[in-house]
Amino acid sequence: MTDVFQNYSSGRDDAPMPPPSRSALDAEAVKLAYRRWAKVYDVVFGGVSRFGRLRAVEAVNGLPGSDVLEVGVGTGLALPHYKTSKSITGIDLSSDMLDRARERVRVGGHSNVRSLLEMDAEETSFEDNSFDIAVAMFVASVVPHPRKLLRELKRVVRPGGYILFVNHFLAPGGVRGSVEHAMARASRSLGWHPDFAMEALLPPEDMVRAYMQPVPPLGLFTLVTLENLPSD
Ligand SMILES: C[S@@+](CC[C@H](N)C(=O)[O-])C[C@H]1O[C@@H](n2cnc3c(N)ncnc32)[C@H](O)[C@@H]1O
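# S-adenosylmethionine complex -> structure
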């Protein structure tokens, strides 16, 4: 989301500060940025990301296993859409985003949300093999070390379970890739940062086996599904 909200400003003093660039987005920077974004997140980002979020939850709902970890759960926009047979644990670094997620769960009575915890997705306190599925929606391009995030998700998901990401990824060459590189130079005026490469998240051995589906709008986002191999 750093990319999406890059340099966003309403011009008001109390408006959210632009989140720092991805490389600078350590835990404290994330908390600071999302303290301010929490107030307007659903309105500013909820719409454009809706299809990607719904596709990811739909995919989770169709997978075997009931214990689901949602990392970077944010304001909890996905929470109402899980099947009630899925038991959801949500984590996020930002207590302000989590407050909104908790309120959503309270108002909606989503009793299948087991817990919402303040925790770093790159270094959780969960035991190995705690979950059947982990899903990260619009988070991979926000964390400082995407490969570390992937390693942690592989640790906490049981062998044979699934790890899902939905995000915007830089197109691998071609016209769209060229356009995205060009767009990245204009990210200040675009309001998002289009050049987060999938290679920054997935090592080559996962790139070749991941199941990738473009999602609307215009295939701008990609849903990545990765089975957690026993040898991982
Ligand atoms: C763009 S928002 C996405 C929120 C939600 N997944 C959605 O689909 O609306 C990114 C979220 O990731 C959280 N986040 C960023 N880095 C994190 C980390 N290392 N661990 C846990 N959450 C993190 C932020 O606090 C923020 O709530």
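# post-check
DSSP finds nine helices and seven strands in the chain.
The chain has one domain: 2-9+19-227.
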